[in-house]
Amino acid sequence: MTDEAPKIPERDHRELSFAVPCTSCEAWTERRIGPRGTALPTSVTCGACGTPRPLDLPGHVDGEGALDGCPACGYHTLCIQKDVNPKLGVAIVVVVFAAMLLAGLTIPQLVVGLVVLAVADWLLMAAVVKRFLLCYRCKAQFRGFPPGPRCRPFDLATWEAHDPPAGEPP
Ligand SMILES: [Zn+2]
Ligand SMILES: [Zn+2]
Fold it and tell me: Is the pTM of this model over 0.85?
């Protein structure tokens, strides 16, 4: 294990945001904080039942804006997860394919179109893939923060050592 923080691309989420599960009703509350430099919240109120939950963001973000440790439950290690939206890619493929059918292309033209589409889809996914930080213990998610020195790439064994998540993430 090295002490070097894993690198994530600069284009990652420009807007800071987070999602935390409620300790009382287990509903997820998602909040946008704003661009880097915005004042960080110190608590979050559940959108479903109104229960406040302390969130020590200022205490876990360093001078460079990197997040280390979980502001919601205090767990020391956050994992770095890929943040992809597979539905978006599928929707684009379906829409373009329908458009090609409507345009009355021949079968060979359709095949070429599909290959081009698959390549374009792959390039798009590679370009827009983002990462977020996820707490192993309480499953809180934080977007837009560079990972601090104790953040680690996702590790299934560590994940399974903790309780399953409360409710479904947003
Ligand atoms: Zn709640
Ligand atoms: Zn946590």
Answer: no
